[in-house]
């Protein structure tokens, strides 16, 4: 009987979504996001990754639009992080407001942001939106691609949790109507 109870508890625990330390009251799982956007027209779902990253990682057409929160400055190298410098999109708030208006929503709508892993841009972009008057901003915990495995033969590969690994709709190439494009921003 004791073994049965332990097996039941373990099975139940393993079926629950895995959340990172960044999960908090504004985090929402990929599955919950999918359900919410299917059930409500009053949600703005934004991919906040740099569009070049999307080209190489993948994209979901479930998002309403791509508005980068942090953008890549390809003219400056960040030696501490061994990558190009990232800077905050100076037009992020105005672009979010424009996306809300285009969808017929206002600043009280639920806004869900999603980055690659949920930590570097997803959570900070949702907090930034909240700090700027968007009280119902949230982020997708574990983001689009999820966390990298820490150990084993596939250590370093992002093959656990996240939108892509939960079997939710995605594709390799971005939708040109939804991807952030400088040529369309200047109009």
From TrEMBL:
InterPro entries: Rhodanese-like_dom, Rhodanese-like_dom_sf. Residues 1-23 form the signal peptide. PROSITE patterns: RHODANESE_3. The keyword Signal applies. One of its GO terms (molecular function) is transferase activity. The keyword DNA repair does not apply. SUPFAM superfamilies: Rhodanese/Cell cycle control phosphatase. It comes from the Bacteria. This is Rhodanese-related sulfurtransferase.
